Amino acid sequence: MRSIFFSSLFALAAVAAISSSPAHAGSVNNTNGGGNINTSSGAFSEADQSAVTLGGIALGNSHVNTMGGNNRNSSPGAFSFANQSTTTIGGSAFGRGRVNTFGGNNFNSSPGFASSANQSTLTLGGTASGHGRSNTFGGMNTNFAGGAFSSANQQVATVGGTAGRHSLSNVSGGANFNGATGFGSTANQQVFTGGQ
User: Fold this and answer.
1) Handedness of CA 112, 189, 191, 48 (dihedral sign)
2) pLDDT, tens digit, 9 for 90 and up, residues 99-135
3) Is residue 15 within a helix (H) or strand (E), and if so which, with residue range?
4) Cα–Cα distance for residue pair 155/140, rounded to 1 Å
5) What is the pLDDT of residues 136-174, one digit of tens each?
6) Dihedral sign, CA of 55, 56, 60, 62?
7) Which residues sit opposite 92 in a β-bridge?
8) Measured between alpha carbons, how far is 11 from 136 in angstroms, rounded to an integer?
9) Which of 145, 79, 144 is nearest to 113 (CA)?
């Protein structure tokens, strides 16, 4: 779980460094993570992927929608290795705004002889102030390593956003799946869902 929070600290530092233009009152600010696909097929293959989606800012009765990408990481083949790390951070809405943060539909798979799959995902809700609403939905994360000597490891954290005075914060953990099938397989999963 430590790697998730280190990646979140990096992402938060990136948020502080980026000056984004806020959407005007009554508008919608949409941030869509790319449909990233990372694959490395063949003997002795290795695939690594890291994706960060940062939400924007909306003012006055506006909506901020941050959707993590449909990230897919796969490395099938003998001695394959697949690693994926995704972070989705919601934006900020001020003045009766609404912040919707959707974790990506992340899929991590490394089937094959001596395969190993690692996946670490973080969905961090945005900030809604002044009668606003912050909705945080963890991604549909799946981690699978099928084959002899396979190993699957998945760490998922869904942290609710911040809602100011007279505001509402909703947090829904992701539908996380972790499986390692095959001779000598090992599966590990850590899931955390909490509000702020």
Assistant:
1) negative
2) 999 999 999 998 878 889 999 999 999 998 877 889 9
3) helix 2-17
4) 13
5) 999 999 998 887 788 999 999 999 988 877 788 899 999
6) negative
7) 57, 127
8) 17
9) 79
